[in-house]
Write a structure and sequence with these properties.
Layout (H helix, E strand, L loop, with lengths): L3 H26 L3 H44 L1 E5 L6 E5 L6 E4 L6 E4 L26 H10 L1
Helix pairs in contact: 1-2
Length: 150
Amino acid sequence: MASAYTICRSLLITLFISAAAAGLLLATLHIDFWLSFVITTALQLVGSYFFNIFYRSHIAYKNNEQSILQSKIFDNNGIELPCAYCSHKNLAPINFNSTNIFTCLKCEKENAVYVNITTAQRTKPLSLDPFSVTAFDDNIEVVKNKILNE
């Protein structure tokens, strides 16, 4: 909210500009001072009203864009984890160059996330249809020998 000082200062600036414009119109075009003063004051107030509407909608649009961008980044670096206190599922950010802490949405307690990174051998997938069985042999010894001989 605007303070009384800010409102008074804005009104004084508006009145000063209106008086200057009215004086200029009186001196150059011989238009009545008070009529031009009222008209320029009204035009400034209406103009500032529409400017504020445009400015606020522009800011809301930019904030929405920023929020969408942050959620896309968060989707790439976030994971759903249960709270350590109440087991409520939370979407927690994971960042590899800082401490990973999130606050539970339900119990509002702070949780720490520890990331454990391991390595594994990369394998090549078989070129078979995963839902078809080509041969089935229930004799374990025969299957073992086939695998070892290949």
